[in-house]
Protein 1
Amino acid sequence: MNGPTADPEHTRGSGGNTYNGPAAGQYGDHSTQNNYFPSTRPLVSWPHQVGVIPRRADCFQHRHAVDQVGAALDDGNAAVLVGQVLAGAGGVGKTQLAADYARRAWHSGTADLLVWITASTRSAIMSGYAQAAAEVLPVPPENPEDAARAFLAWLEPRPTTVPRRWLIVLDDVSSPADLSNLWPPTSPHGATVVTTRRRDAALSGPGRRQVPVGMFTPGEATSYLQAALVERGRHEPEQQLTHLAADLGHLPLALSQAAAYLIDAELDCATYRRRLADHTRRLADLLPDADALPDDQTTSTAAAWSLSINRADQLQPAGLARPLLEVAAMLDPNGIPAPVLTGSAVLAYLAEHRTHSTPGHDQAAPITAEQAYDTLRVLHRLSLIDHTPGTPQQAVHVHQLIQRAAREPLPTERYDQLARTVADALTATWPDVERDAALARALRANTDALTRHAPGALYQPEAHAVLYRTGASLGATGQVTAATAYFRHLADTAHTRLGPDHPNTLTARYNLAYWLRRAGNADGAADCEQLLEDTLRVLGPDHPNTLAARSNLAHWQGQAGDAAAAAASLAELLEDRLRVLGPDDPYTLTARHNLAYWRGRAGDVGGAADFEQLLEDMLRVLGADHPDTLTTRSSLARWRGEAGGADGAAADFEQLLPDRLRVSGPDHPDTLTTRHDLAHWRGRAGDPAGAAAGFEQLLPDRLRVLGPDHPDTLTTRHDLAYWRGRAGDANGAAAGFEQLLPDRLRVLGPDHPDTLTTRHSLARWRGEAGQADGVAASLAALLPDRVRVLGPDHPDTLTTRHDLAHWRGRAGDADGAVADFEQLLPDRLRVLGPDHPDTLTTRHDLAHWRGRAGDPAGAAAALAELLADRMRVLGPDHPHTLTTRRDLAHWRGETDGRGSVR
């Protein structure tokens, strides 16, 4: 902003100032009522200035805060120009804003008397008042206390005189006590501006208010850098300047000094930013020397807060401010959860590194959480942090350069100890069940910040548990892709720092394989096999991590289509976990759960009994609210449904949902999954419209919580389209799948199993919508891809062959359908077994198309054999059993008893 260039404010006393207003004495400058005012004195030339207003900074930016000051003073109120953390710490430009207001008031003629005092001590304030008294009253300044009282008394409004208009600026007040009995009076004819790093309650009150001074806005910061460099013939890309401003936290002092450094060192912005990001370099080495600071500055950015830190350390509870600020300096500047800073690990660090204590206090006494809280308030009052207890998930904010100034002086050993302490504090704060999504996000952000500040310390002597907790949190909140990327990086880092065979490296690799599987990435199978070999070699067959790797590999077998092999592997694993860990170990219970699950996937729908017994044990060992217990209830409901009790499954999920909401919260992925399963089983229980409505309600929440590209969001869109079709809207289903397919191709790729499933569903519902001729062709094109990606024996491949046969029949080729089903049935018998529901379905459809091809007797005979098996496997009341009875009656009715068609 281009301001006035004349500098009459740099004069002292009355010399050089002229004023065309009333002559001296006209306003009643003499008083016979007050002993401080002599009856005779030299005339004062008005307007009059005492003290020197600081020079206007180069490329000064006009900011909103100065307008707030002006508005307050125009209302006749005194204003306290202070700031908040990231707003009022040293270097935010409080003095420049006060000077800008004072300068404008002076040049506009709104002040007859302007007094500028550098008010860093009480004696400095008194001396400034005494000088003003000597020049205005005049009162001899030899006794500053008496002179100060005389000046303050002169400022008081007097009804018998017309007073002078005055403005007092007290710059850089360091303690509220320094202003005790020295506040200028509240007056309709005068105003006071105070700049300070403090924001104690004592600085506000009647006639005064606090005006926060913040950092530059991003736009102001970029404009400032651009102007400062252009003024010296330098031009940098605006994007680089924007990034540099963000790197410096938009702190005005740092920006001005960085611009000077760029010019002096002849560095381009990108190079400087690389140096700034190098944490092996000290901040002091990246700024101008003390004798080369711009804008008449006397303090470097690196040292701007040292006095405030020292002062904070002296306040009660004494000696804790500096070590607590060191802890906060290792964490996320944008928000630190309160429990992290008041937990036992941090309290122990404060006790060990307390700088001093006041007389009468035991230096060796343990530090309490209450003392840590009080220390946060001290740091807040001195504008070193911003402490907002009402937002516990992000209770503390610290400017990144204050953090750097607190970290850099620490010796290496102390620094590493601090990093491990902070990691312990984060781990202790992390809840076992992440009900609070905001807290989980804050903990992950703080762990990320800690990892950036101290990457080496967190791997010595081994990788800290908080590193693994962060990745697990990502996955637990549904960010499966992010969890995969995180553990890939962690595995690579552990490999580099600890070696390939270190147990921590193997643990990171296990987690990577696990989340690759959860993300549906087939590449993880090979990684899991290699991991198992390495774990067996390094840790032995009975180590819990080896058993975990075996479990992961079994899941890969199942996802690859071999559910029977997965069940067999898990049965062997269960025996070993029982032997090594015991029957009540949570991992043993998990093995039982997974075994029951894959037995069900292999066709043993009667295996729900396994979940019933497991649920009893989980309730006894883990309790009703443990996430694994709730997951077992979910699995039990599902397999009861698969065994024919769809109504019961829907009822079970209705009972489970309130518990999920209470334990995990409405936005937890497990809660959303329970809502998904409830909608699904409502549909399976005969309410497709209710299922579609459930998915319509669920989809916005999955979009909001997980994002549009999360696999679970895409699955909800898939199932919504499916149940719309089942509810009678075949066209809507086809349209839904048409919209979904491009997103699955983009997000998952053409060969992902879910993408292939959407292609399959799109073909089917186009057929149901009346486009039967093209369905068989689409499925025929899909089949080679499923064989290539999943293999010829994968259940999904067999399903595509099944539906291809069905739609060939629907297209008029009943004989082709029969031939296809006859070829499919031996493969389903071989892969799934004779009692698997899909095998029974193939037998049913083969019989149906035999009847449609002209052999009703053969159809009836086949269905009669099938009915006995469906009653045995599924029970007499299962919907598929009832369908077979109905179709058997139909085809028997189509014959005359001798095998010919009626």
Note: Confidence is low (pLDDT under 50) at residues 1-40, 76-87, 898-902.
Protein 2
Amino acid sequence: MTNKIYAAILLSTVSIGSNAWAQAAGDQTASADASASVDDIIVTAQKRSERLRDVPVSITAASGEQLLKQGITGPNDLEKIVPGFTYVKSTYGAPIFTIRGIGLYDTFVGVSPTVTVYTDQVPLPYLAMTQGAGLDIERLEVLKGPQGTLFGQNSTGGAINYIAAKPTDEFKAGFDLTYGRFNQIDTQGFLSGPITDTLRARVAVRREYMDGWQRSETRPNDTLGARDFTAARLLLDWDPTDKLKFELNLNGWKDKSETQAPQFVAFSPSRPFDQGGFTDSFDVIGDRAPAPNKARVADWDRDADYQRDDWLKQISLRGDYEILDNMTLTSITAYSDFRQYAQTEVDGTDFNNVNILQVARVKSFSQEVRLAGDLGDRIKYTLGANYQDDKVNGADIGLNYVSSQNGVGPFRYNSFAKRGNQKIKTKAVFGSIDFKLLEGLTLQGAARYTDQKRRFSGCLADGGDGLLALGIQFAGQIAGGSTNLGAPGGCVTLDDSTPALLTPETVRRDLDETNTSWRAGLNWKANPDTLLYANVTKGFKSGTFTLIPAIYASQFTPVTQEGVLAYEVGVKTGFFGNAVQVTAAGFYYDYTDKQIIGVKGFPIFGNLAALNNIPESRVVGAELEATIRPFEGLRLSGGGTYVNSKVKGSFITPDQFGVEVDIGGDAFPNTPKWQFAGDAQYDFPLSSSLEGFVGGSLTARSSTYSRVGKNADYLIKSYALVDLRAGVATPDGKWRAMLWGKNVFNKFYLANMSHQMDTVSRNTGMPATYGITVGYRY
């Protein structure tokens, strides 16, 4: 341990990494406004540089300095500053992002999300790729509502844009070093500057380490949850001529952290004893008491290895050519390679009810070409095309599990694999136009046509010992099907019409879809500091396949694309010389064919996992954000969101316990009706060479359910979290030291609840943490 501490400290003094406090040179598209204040931040939400208050879209934006002060290092922390955004870690660890109720809960990392994430307009098309997105950030932009016309079809909830700090014209360097509870050691630093008159570089590295914060309920000296994460980025900006510019981005990360174990809540056998459930789990965990309401207490299998081996490698090249003074051609080419290898405890006990090993590989190539400019002072336009080619391979492997249902008839099995491969090709053309009708009054229109083809192959496979194959063969014989036997390790999925093993064939499915996203808007610039706008937007999320324990081939029937028709009105304004800045919006969404993972009934086996579309839903809500500077040195900011989601009509589906429920009238899972995020900081002089500051933030949300059905076992209660900070800094910003605490009142709260195999389990949020951060900028 000592060697790791020394190595981390050494790394912090010589490494190159994140610039959260530096006054870095901005994205070349915003270079003219690089000195803009936080309150007059420049954004590229419409793929051009504009003041935040001039963009007729609901946006939460934050500078890199603000993110560092509040300890926000990745998308999982965005609830602290983005009202309406929720982050959930699925049962197997895959991240789920939801904005204003629009999200898809799925345990597989290769499922297309409803919220897209970009770094400098380069896509991170699957949310598991986004862990390193917060490295060395100049600013963050979170766009709410469908963004399909400019950002693609899988952005019905919104889009998250990270803007990396760019290479500078002068030499700059810096580092940050954090030490905190659980032996947390985070180091980050950067080097930036010119190489030649036309070539500039910036290199950044972040290294995070923390001991395990969870304690085993049955083995108090056993811990889990260690953090071991490294991210790096190299940026090269080359300006061969005044009209031609290139940006090369080489980045990646590696995660060797341990997965989190859930807490055991209740014993709930998937197959009751009187219906043939096997007795092993009944005998061991049938009378087990629920875990206490203490965040650190959990349990997991004694000898299992829960260390991840995940990584991402990405390369992108952007080129901008100024064809005319008012016309620019832009090309963005990117290739991403992601690998996951992670075992997760699912049942929350030291009994091996179920452990899942997730193995996945995603390779994604994307190309965008667009032409943007203006025609006089009345028309601004963008025309472009996209192409994306993804290969997604994955397997969820059940390891030596013992449950009430791991058997068919007299045959027992203790391992299985869910396999699935997809090839996805997406082509799109898009365009947008802004037309100034009158001085201050602008009409906007945009559209995108998308053509996507998905090719899927997958199956439920025997665990390698032939035991599952024997059981499935027995079931097929009962159903009057073939007596052929799948090979050990081979596919055992049954054909629905004639229950015969598909071995050695896998199930193959195609999904070809097209759609046209569009947006129409009218905005009025009443005065330089006030904007009123109204938008109508249609967006789509692509249909999808996922990994399912498919005993029957029809379980691989995909969900088709879902659509959101969004109506929004809003205002952005300032008062008292912009000492008070306010943004407000009201919205209504018509939501069709919402995608969910549910269950369907099948012969012999009863309720099995399957994808479903909910025909009709709706979301109605409002949000308010404000920044107030009542006097010099004090800054107050905060925002709240009200989201009322509802399934329209009647929709009957079995819940995770196999009980049929009508979810008509229910709110969406993982969608709190109320959310609030606020922050305050006061800066004051201590001497001519030293300044002090104190600050804090509050995050609060109302209750929600983690799954459909409003079952009490899925209830996530409301909670509020408080973070505090205090420190000193030099007036020129070169040195800063900060004491901080997160969840300072050690609030016990839940992040997720689920039912898998024979247990109801829950994932807790982090307990109180605290530490010190020091930084230096040259």
Note: The first helix runs from residue 2 to 14.
Protein 3
Amino acid sequence: MSLADLVRKGDTAGVAAALAELTPEQRRAEVPALRERRKEMRDSWSSSPDRWTALLVAGAGCLTAPTAAAEWIGSRAFEDRAGWRNPLLVEVIDRQPPEWRQVVTERLAERRAPGWGWSEHFPLLEYLVRSTGCPVPTTDSFTTQWVRERSRPEPRHAAFGTLPPGRNLFARLAADPFTPVLAPRVFEVPDLASELEGPWSARDDSERWPGVLARLAAEGVLDRADLIDRCLARLLRGGGRPNDNRVHLSILGALAPTEDEYAGHARTLLGMLDGPSTTAALAQQVLAALDAAGRVDAELLGEACLTVLFRPEKKLVRTQLGWLDRAARTAPDRAGPVVLAAAGAFGHPDRILQEQALKVVAKHLRKAGPAVLPELRDAAEQLDPAHHVRAAELFGTEVRAEEYAELLPAVPQPRPVPAPIATPAELAEELGAVLAGDTGLVPWERALDGLVRHARADRPALAEALEPVLRVHGGNSLALVAEAAAGRMTAARAAEISLGRVRGHFRYDWSTGFDVQIAARLEEAVRLLAVRPVPYLLATPTLSTGAIDAAVLVERIAGYAAADIGPGPVDLGQALLRVTPTDDPAVLAAAAQIDTPAGRRLTAWLRGGGLPHQESTVLAPSNGRAPNGRRRSATRRLVHQPGAGATGLPADADRLVDSTDRQLSQRYVWWNPPASEQWAAILPHHREETAARMLERFAACADADDRGGCRLLPVLAEAGGPAGPAVHLAVAYGLGARHSEDRTAAVDALLVLAARGDLDGALLGREAAELVVPGAVKPNRLAEALRSAADTGAFGTVWTVLAAALPVLLAGEPGRGTGDLLAIAADCARRTAARGPIAEVTALAARGGSSRAVREAAALRDVLAG
């Protein structure tokens, strides 16, 4: 009976016995049949574990080339089959020559470790290492598996060996000959730190890896100096997962280096000051202690200050200034370097830290002597204007503040859309990029128009060019339109898709009104391509905002009339929503010359001024239900718009611009797709209407911690039409978003609106404050965003926002984070020379006390009083 037949029966013992009778040539001859059997078993869900074990043993015995044997034994096909623990596998491997077994051992040690959990083949590999006498492998994979295996609550027993005894991790590692070789490697293997938090069965910290490693070093099993070197080097390198540093700090804490040991690593500690805040805090603490013991020179202290005093973490900066103060007090001869180092904090963005630095300088300035004054005067120019008077008193000269000038970005100009795609080959290339993930408006629109154009001009050439693209990308979005354009779609399927009744083609459970309008365009494109191809699309934008030049649209519709072709209703409707309003007599006269339904529709649309703009009314939070049946939010502020009335647009477009009371932004689903640039381009001249219909998405970024919903805010800011309550409320939500990239997008939108002259700072400030009061927006997030905006040079813009926000915010008890907003307000007011009291600020300042809010309110009150 052949080995393959024995494998089919699951007879592992028979396989082992048969292998003993075969010559090397006979065993090699069995390999093709075994490989075929493995393929069959992979494709079958019914193969028993016994068959897999028999197959594993058969391959291990027949593959006489060690590299091939290692590939077979380590194959993922045998994962979780328990065959690696079968003693017959060891028996078959032990029959092989020593050189063969050593190569197999080395190759298996390089095999990638499982992403998590224990490796079933590690006990076999450990046995091979011990029995062959080869060096202990130090690969990342072997080290990872070793750590996991030793962390097991109970050691595994196999017929071919027993792991070091005992449940206790220390006892296990102390008796393990692998420990001296592999324990030092744990600091170098990527993504291993989380494994060192265990074992999970440990009852206290002394039984976990950090404590055990320290005890092994104390017992002489490991080299203590080497462990400290490696641990500090790992902390210096940083990187990895966020928790990795915490684990390595735990190991260092368990090792508890002495002052002498730390003194030998002063330069390493200096480098750690630039690492994560927890690592930097430890390095700072140790270096300060070494300095107090007289073991840090002035040069190293200066370098430490250059690193720490520019960090954003206020606690680190305060501690560093305290270290400088103690250094000058204990060694007066260091006063000069100390005051110059402290002056490095004059440029810190936090005004309170600047004040603390100024106090350190003032305390030690006399001992430092007049030689430091020129450098201090130069550094004082970075101080907040609030400290200029004090700096002038200390340094003997007036600190001149620069004359204020508001800095805003250049007003963005929309970019022209390139000419239509010229050839099927070029179209295939651009369509491939879009289907691969290029979600930009212009590539998407040009690809859609190109499919329509080239399907009519030369469908066979288009089909040939699209074939490789559709082979890779297919089944959704533009790929379905491309199938219709290439003639690869049956009439029945085209009809099914174009009717728009089946979800999963272009319409989905999560579709918003914007998605539905896009779906209507795609459905109509499939229908036109399957029934009567048109020469081009009317709704392709001429500008990157989605807008269409009125003269170009007149020319397009005239082209349809000349060819005696009627446009698709959805395409025409989208073109009307995008056309830029005009009163140019020549354009209106040219439109009036087109004697077709589409021409007459365009003429009436242009003469009527296009889609009317809707008035927005802000809706306060409510526990009731909206007219559409949805329960309103108790914290969210939304916007009501009455609807555009009778527009004559196709149904989906008409519903999009209908009253917000009768709309569902989308059906409830567990996942919200990312907002698309195409949404804002549907109504390029009506950003207020677009913002009103997207407000819940913007709100979710602030009160539900969603990510990415605010990325369209800069696009809306660059769009046309009035910027009313909806746009400003959208920006207010974005400024209080959970994720930094959403706040950055909101800051960009704020600055663009200001640069265009469309920002109502008072409206934005009031709406932002109304969101803070019920907790929809956290004040610390709002403060961070407004500080970012101010730091670009837009202090006047930010002041108009905060001047309107503060009366609302301070009407009740100041919440946490209000002090940050007051500090930014004081900075902006000081720089812009704002004057005039704010009653709520004055009242808060009059309370007295040492709270941050009261102190900053007093500072702002004084600035406004001149």
Note: Residues 80 and 715 are 52 Å apart (CA to CA).
Protein 4
Amino acid sequence: MARMIWAAALAVAVPCNAYAAEPAKSSVAPNLIDEVKALKTMDTAGKPDEALAKIDAVLARARRAKGIDRLDMIYAEASRANALFWLDRYDEALGIYHKLEAELDSGKYPMTADRAELVNNIGSLYSSLGKLEEATRYKLRALDLTAQAAGTQSIEYASALYGMALVEFRQGEPLKALPRVREALRIARSHANLTGDDLEQPAIFGLSLAALLIQAGDTASSIEPAREAAVWAETHLGEDHRVTMATLNQLGTSLSDSGLYAQAIPVIRRTLDLRVKAYPAGHTDIAFSLSALGFALDNSGHKEEALPFYERAAEIFEKSNNQNNPTIAATAIGQVARLASWRGDKAASLALREKALRIGRERAASPEHPDVIFAEVNLAKEYISNGRSADALPLLAHANEAFRKRALESNARRLAGMVFAEQIAASKGDRTGALSRTREILAPARTRLLDRATPRSEVTRLAEQYHFLFVQQARLAMSAGDPVQAFEALQLANLGDLQSAMSSLAMLRASDSSEATEVIRRYQAFAADGARLRRTLNAQVAAGKGEQAEDLNRQLAAVDANIRAEDSRLAALIPGYSIRTAVEPATLAAAQKSLGKGQALILYGQDEEGLIVLAVTPQKAVAATTPIAPRLLLDLEKRLRGSIDLGLANSGQGAFDRTAAFELYQALFPQPIREAVKGSPDLRILATGGLAALPFAALVTEAPKGADDASGALRRTHWLAETHAVSIPLAAVPLPERPQGKRALTFAGIGAPVLGQPVRLATRSAPLLRSGDTSAKALRELASLPGAADELRQMASGFSGQPSLLIGADATETAVKAAPLEQASVIAFATHGLVGGSFRDLIEPALVLTPPDSPSDLDDGLLTASEIAKLRLDADWVILSACDTSAGDGESAPTFSGLARSFVAAGARSLLLSHWPVRDDVASRLTLDTLQGARSGATRAEALRRAQLAIMKDKKVPGGAHPATWAPFVLVGN
């Protein structure tokens, strides 16, 4: 998707109307002379059709007149070529430019900045046409000519710099292009502020900087230049200007590619509205916004709403002849096909995949175009799913050979085709051989995920790409009767969720060690070199220049070795670094050895065919599948969560959808899995996607009876909590327990920060925060939690020793970091939790404390994951209670996954976390009963289960029978 949006950004990033007016010597009417001169600096980008009509009218009159200065006419013709470019009439524009270039080179005219600009624009047109060697030649010449004629601080030089960067991007060198675009943007802003001219250039360069940062892998950093470009364009050009609309689209894309879908959607919707108003119905710019909106909705869990936007975009692209992206229609149709498969409509998905390939082949310049061969792989997958392996084989043979020449070994598309071929081999009886070859095929993906040279920020994105492939490996392992490989494959398939809150090394900058800071700097420099070399290698392979790959691979191996060395130094210098960035899967034998009597580990994988489930006990490993369409599974999850929200709104008096809870149980625990865990009351669950946020304890194990809103019927319901205690381990093999000395049970309570007025859904009522701002001012808009202080005091009353309470104005970051928290056995936080990546300035997850009057690096009101990891704890429990989990609304990220790892790194043995806000009268009882149960000899998970059931069965607790009341907490860790 990012590639499509970048293409849209490129469409506004080519010609520059920077021609200067020169004195004319003529007897012709002064008005016509002035009109011709004015054409030189006309804005042809905003409304190119209107500009072209005006240019043609003036030129027609000027050609009939006598005495118009020929140089003025040349640059007026150049402006006409600019307008043709904006109308996607590239060949016409290029013909005009070459004709004018030949005339200027005739020797009659001196070299000027205007001539250099014309050379630059010719290079830009060649770049848009994909003729990069010609583009490079013209761009380098333009840079040299512009530097001589206008100087390196001129707007003409900025345009030449930008044009050269554009070519470098298309050559697969985004990191090389970045400094050129930054410098071009600086010059353009200075020029525009000083002269008031060329006002579109800062916006164009800014949106392109944002798009480049996405391509370079620094998605979070792309948001700021995109926002600045949008503000500049709207202020200086107006909202109906084409460049303004492009900047807004880029801002939406940057937010969307950063996973901030809730923030992206309104921006893209506005862009779409503006483009619909400005352009005819079938304009490709409208299609780009439609596709962008579909992508944001799709990935934020609103797939049904995304479908019509995908369909309309595909329709427009199919009818268009976009020379920048000739195969974009095939890509768009493929998105529609994917949603059809998600719905379980195999017939529609198959028909659309066939159509996508047909159109891709018709429009691509080569049958080996990457979009075409990927369409072949996708169609082959559909054929396999429909039992048509014979039809799939020739497609895979061609695609796999083409990808072998044009893609790296770790490219997910390349790997998919090879894995599908092995699925066919397995279906013909060669199960063991197919599994062995699949493991070998996926070895490069495994290496990329687990290699310490892979930046931690890339692990989640890579895991998302590879998830489907490792699920296929798990399916093959099941069919071959190999639980060892199935166990490892499902762990790798789940890495995206297990590591979802891992952030880049920016999270470690809080280190107060100058040595660590220097190591981080070196690490980041090597990481940038590695990213550049990988993209260069990709581009060389795609261009068929395999002879250069060997040298690049040697350079890459050296860079990766340096990264691993710096990584080891970081592990030694920064507490908790290794545990927060470890992703190595456990072996099945080690997992079984770690399980005690009555314990079982359950792993889930999901693809378009449904669920694959693996249950591991000390004695055996049992696998099973559930054929359920992703749409149906999501609908069940939404119904369950909707019942929770209703119960929260009505203090537990609303109905609970037990039918959905029962159907979910049947899907998540198919019969072989139920039998396998029947004797295992202690379940440890590693789930994927939306399943990770499910309250498993509230699943219903037998068909429900009675009314869903009757407390008696709810109490008589067969909940999973009746027979099984559930916990979420941090990894397949738990961390070893630290030896405990004898000490009094002590308690530390932190929370109830001084914030704004108490309201429901706090983050939605904090406009600055929702805009991406996480400053102290924005935090003060968050709602206060009036019951949090009493909750902490009630918890403290159940502990011996002298409790430590940091409440209200005392609950500051400075106080928490200075407190002797290592003396506490139990630490409770009652405050808001913010999702890492959900806000512009928040790279990692964090807990909100009382914001200081004068924020600093040491105290900005947010206790982040990296700061938590550097605390010195020795706690049996850390409790995160009363958190407003709407902070993660629409962002597809578990709120506490990163915090959990950081607390464990700091010294916590286990954590009690809330899926949703907990009632004050229930929170303290649940936590105290759980802690006391564990002190009495029960496992932590069993103690939580007993506490939950006690609330549910207590008729004195209003609404206590509703899962919204008794099932908010989940145990994470040992």
Note: Residues 428-531+560-581 form one domain.
